[in-house]
């Protein structure tokens, strides 16, 4: 009796209930369309910043899913340098970070290139530049050999009898299994792109062809499948971020699919839900990017701002906590209280700052954009 789907006689003839997927698929595609349309309206600089935020999260979280902690500053710095974003690539370099960044960017930007053995091996080498996974030496840029026994996914426990959640096909089967997978992936465009991405993720991670890094590569392949459908070369949301936030259900859905029959409806339902959650999270995170981009676009051709005003306005657009006071302005800009008050009064006359109720000694201001009807010039 087959324990895992790869042991079934009809493997890999996957199937799913199209009717059950119809509504969640339509919802996910609707969210995708609205979000990508919104991104087209915010200008080049806004898209670059949103891309930097999403790719940084993707690199950080695809590693965190596997229990590996990478420095967010190093991730952001590496991606910023590669995207050509000035003043954002100042963090320390890290060899492991550089490798994961290479994979994530390759999947997003080189979507037209076919998925091949060599490409997968290149991703694997980037993940493990030293040839070690932790303290263990592994086979890098080649299929696993199972020289230490069957490839198993085992719960992390100190129990003398740890739980085996999954056992992959024997190493001798891997080249043929991968050949079939790649032939399908490089030719299959007849099914919905999101279903194709979910299927590719499950299929690759079930083959489990490498000594380590199979989950990260499976997620990169799913990202590649989505990039092939969007054909933009930019990624503004993070599937890995959504997976990491729902990691327990992710592993449960994988195990259920790998131990079930070849009807993968439940896995695809989870994948579509995760995708919709990734878009929703990106909308929340990038709202500030949208607001900031639209704000500066609206200022083109208007009265110029001083460097101090631009500095404080950027902080306000980023979600400055608390109310703004003359003292805080002076501290941020390193200027006198009188200079700070003149700067503030100018923004009040433009309707960008609103004076809050209170005595003149404790006067504070709230940022408003789009601007309100400016009140009379404050004097204190």
UniProtKB/TrEMBL annotation:
Residues that bind ATP: 212-219, 250-251
Pfam family, one: DUF4172
Positions of the catalytic residues: 208
Stored SUPFAM superfamilies: Fic-like
GO molecular function: ATP binding
Keywords annotated in UniProt: ATP-binding, Nucleotide-binding
Residue ranges of domain Fido in the record: 115-273
Span of the signal peptide: none
Protein name per the record: Fic family protein
Provenance organism: Azospirillum lipoferum
């Amino acid at each position: 009796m087959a324990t895992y789907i790869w042991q079934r006689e009809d493997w890999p003839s996957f199937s799913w209930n199209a009717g059950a997927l119809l509504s969640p698929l339509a919802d996910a595609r609707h969210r995708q369309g609205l979000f990508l349309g919104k991104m087209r309206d915010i200008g080049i600089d806004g898209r670059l910043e949103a891309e930097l935020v999403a790719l940084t999260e993707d690199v950080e979280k695809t590693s965190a899913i596997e229990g590996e902690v990478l420095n967010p500053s190093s991730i952001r710095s590496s991606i910023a340098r590669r995207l050509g974003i000035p003043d954002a690539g100042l963090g320390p370099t890290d060899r492991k970070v550089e490798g994961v960044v290479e994979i994530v960017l390759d999947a997003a930007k080189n979507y037209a290139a076919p998925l091949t053995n060599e490409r997968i091996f290149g991703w694997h080498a980037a993940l493990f530049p030293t040839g070690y996974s932790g303290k263990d030496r592994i086979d890098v840029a080649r299929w696993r050999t199972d020289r230490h026994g069957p490839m198993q996914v085992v719960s992390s426990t100190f129990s003398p009898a740890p739980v085996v959640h999954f056992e992959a096909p024997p190493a001798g089967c891997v080249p043929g299994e991968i050949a079939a997978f790649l032939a399908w992936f490089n030719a299959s465009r007849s099914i919905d792109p999101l279903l194709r991405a979910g299927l590719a993720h499950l299929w690759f991670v079930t083959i489990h062809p490498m000594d380590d890094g199979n989950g990260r590569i499976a997620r990169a392949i799913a990202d590649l499948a989505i990039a092939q459908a969007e054909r933009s070369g930019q990624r503004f949301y993070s599937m890995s971020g959504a997976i990491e936030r729902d990691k327990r259900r992710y592993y449960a859905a994988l195990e259920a699919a790998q131990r079930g029959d070849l009807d993968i409806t439940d896995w695809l339902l989870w994948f579509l839900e995760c995708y919709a959650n990734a878009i929703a999270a990106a909308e929340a995170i990038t709202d500030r990017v949208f607001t900031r981009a639209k704000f500066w676009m609206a200022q083109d051709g208007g009265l110029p701002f001083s460097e101090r005003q631009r500095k404080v306005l950027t902080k306000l657009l980023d979600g400055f906590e608390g109310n703004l006071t003359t003292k805080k302005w002076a501290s941020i800009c390193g200027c006198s209280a009188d200079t700070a008050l003149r700067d503030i009064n100018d923004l009040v006359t433009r309707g960008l700052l609103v004076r809050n109720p209170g005595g003149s000694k404790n006067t504070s201001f709230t940022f408003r954009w789009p601007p309100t009807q400016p009140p009379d010039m404050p004097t204190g």
